[in-house]
DNA sequence: TTACATTATGAAACCACTCTCATTATGTAA
DNA sequence: TTACATAATGAGAGTGGTTTCATAATGTAA
């Protein structure tokens, strides 16, 4: 019932462990006939090499740690599935970790559980900096997703470009009084989107100093609250939210208070979540290529694990600006049918 | 730079590996002073026991395989995060696997990578049956989520109860001609919801034979297509979809073709996805407690891993019927604000 | 003080592999 | 045939822990 060992295989074909090991690892200088015999025995015994023994004798765990923030977002599904897919192709396994990963990352590496990491780092920049510095010192391979820091390998999307595209579009519509509804103040994605928006606004001949920034925490509720606060004193032309959920929160508040979107106030979001095209009004937003991010990150990590020591730097994936109705452009819900064939993983 | 070993710790405090091992594992009969010394050395060296060595000498991998279908749904985020949370509490780690898990599950167990499994098994009942039978024979602990089979430990939601609640509500509204928009024909969830619906319909004094069933694949597009087909020959009073996405697909088709929802045709879905309360009309649906499912599954698995041999059978979690506008009940989008505080993980 | 139980520690085997090095078998050139 | 290179295989050490068993140190009762 218990699994066969390499010793069992060796005995079964009258050879030594060493020779069986050679066959398993495809080393040269083994007689073809011997290879035959060993493979037959392996098949008959249903033998699979014990990973711990392999790892212990220098092979590594063939596992990577996927470190995600405590607060899960549903688009992690796309991220995870693409990561796992690439990992499987390359003979690696994915260990996920969310709770307290800042505290535990180094330990699970020390324990030999993982050979490297992918971090979806969001906030708490300083803590991450400290961790990354230690890992770098110890030559632990890791890749960041979505929040580039220093010269660490990172996969990002073009937040600046996305923000800029929204700004130019807003400027084209003639919106002047803008509210930027950001994520947490130390969130790099949010800050980059803000930065890009300012640039784009300025490039369009508008004054970026008039942009009012208020921060939420990416939740629907925080978008609702932030806008309810702003509306006490302001009446902007348009709102650019750092993600779709906060944009939706804003819409909910405005609708509840009799403000028409987009006629009175236009809105754009970020992410192109699953629901974006189905709410009313359909949300103008910037699409994040989550699957591609996961794929790129895992490929990057694999090449580092296989010894490529060259620091690959950052990969910036394009973000696609999606125009729908919430910016006051013409759009019919029927339009969403055209893209119904697209993979439904985006959120 | 390379990690300290137990030997290093032993040397550092002039003791043997055995004694250090005792301290680490909290065994009795070690002098308090010795414990002190060892702990100090461990702290100074930053020592962490190597998991592979521990596993090799009988400890197990302290890892469980989380096996998810190839097609990822966004609610897996909730499932995974709760699973990981419980796992961390209990000193376990979560290895996720999606691609070809039917083929690979047994292998990764043989390799010693995992000590047990959680399966989110969906379709392909026969293949799963074969796998589970083999695992059972080999005494491999595993728990199923969402699709109970034979007497294997499983965490399910009350699909039958959910379907029944929808049926009773539909009957109360006086809907007679019903279309059931199911998932794949061998999908247990879908079949149970259908079954529950029939029961509820019958219990309400209606004739369940009039229910027309048509299957999609849970995607928005398939819901759209299925209803477009049905509408060529039928004009139902109401549609009950096996998930929210297909319900949305149906709504999209109906709107596009000038059919009013819910005035002309009422609709209910299943899942209570994030978007359900935000689309127009807000979707009447049945809420799945994904986080609770993950928690229950992992707790169950842990108790099995810790030796509890009693077969715990099935745990059926309640599903909550949520009335909104799409069944033609009065509902304002503002109502969704009341639940905005709820955790936003559900999808 | 002796006798014996109990506590505290170490030596070494064991887990299932890989890898080095030694040894034997085979092939080729002088 | 000898000499030597190369191919094929095995013995054994090493990987980092746990665990058994033996032994030394300490405690307690007669």
From TrEMBL, chains A, B:
CDD domains: HTH_LacI (cd01392), PBP1_LacI_sugar_binding-like (cd06267)
Keyword Heme annotated: no
A Pfam family reported for this protein in Swiss-Prot or TrEMBL: Peripla_BP_3
Residues making up the signal peptide according to the UniProt record: none
Domain HTH cro/C1-type, first and last residues per copy: 5-48
Lineage top rank: taxon: Bacteria
GO MF entries: DNA-binding transcription factor activity; transcription cis-regulatory region binding
Keywords, sorted A to Z: DNA-binding, Transcription, Transcription regulation
Domain HTH lacI-type: 4-58
PANTHER family: HTH-TYPE TRANSCRIPTIONAL REGULATOR GALS, LACI-RELATED TRANSCRIPTIONAL REPRESSOR
Descriptive protein name: Putative HTH-type transcriptional regulator DegA
Origin species: uncultured spirochete
């Amino acid at each position: 019932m218990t699994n066969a060992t390499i010793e069992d295989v060796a005995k079964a074909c009258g050879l030594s462990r060493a020779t069986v090991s050679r066959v398993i690892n495809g080393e040269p200088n083994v007689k073809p006939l011997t290879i035959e015999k060993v493979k037959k025995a392996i098949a008959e015994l249903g033998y699979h090499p014990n990973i711990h023994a392999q790892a212990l004798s220098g092979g590594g765990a063939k596992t990577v740690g996927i470190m995600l923030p405590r607060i899960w977002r549903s688009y992690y599904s796309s991220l995870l599935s693409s990561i796992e897919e690439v990992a499987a192709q390359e003979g690696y396994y994915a260990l996920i970790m969310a709770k307290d990963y800042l505290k535990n990352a180094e330990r699970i590496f020390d324990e030999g559980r993982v050979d490297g990491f992918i971090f979806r780092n969001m906030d708490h920049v300083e803590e991450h900096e400290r961790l990354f510095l230690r890992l770098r010192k110890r030559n632990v391979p890791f890749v960041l997703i979505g929040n580039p820091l220093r010269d660490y390998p990172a996969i990002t999307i073009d937040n600046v470009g996305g923000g800029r595209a929204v700004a130019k579009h807003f400027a084209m519509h003639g919106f002047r009084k803008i509210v930027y509804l950001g994520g947490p103040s130390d969130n790099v994605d949010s800050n980059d989107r803000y930065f890009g928006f300012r640039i784009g606004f300025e490039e369009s001949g508008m004054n970026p100093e008039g942009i009012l920034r208020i921060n939420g925490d990416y939740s629907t509720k925080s978008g609702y609250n932030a806008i309810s606060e702003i509306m006490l004193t302001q009446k902007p032309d348009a709102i650019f939210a750092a993600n779709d959920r906060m944009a939706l929160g804003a819409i909910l508040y405005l609708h509840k208070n009799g403000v028409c979107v987009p006629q009175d106030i236009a809105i754009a979001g970020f992410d192109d979540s699953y629901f974006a095209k189905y709410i009313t009004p359909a949300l103008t937003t910037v699409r994040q290529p989550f699957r591609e991010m996961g794929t790129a990150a895992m490929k990057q990590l694999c090449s580092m694990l296989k010894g490529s020591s060259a620091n690959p730097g950052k990969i910036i994936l394009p973000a696609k600006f999606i125009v729908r109705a919430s910016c006051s452009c013409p759009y019919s819900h029927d339009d969403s049918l055209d893209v119904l064939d697209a993979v439904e993983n985006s959120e």
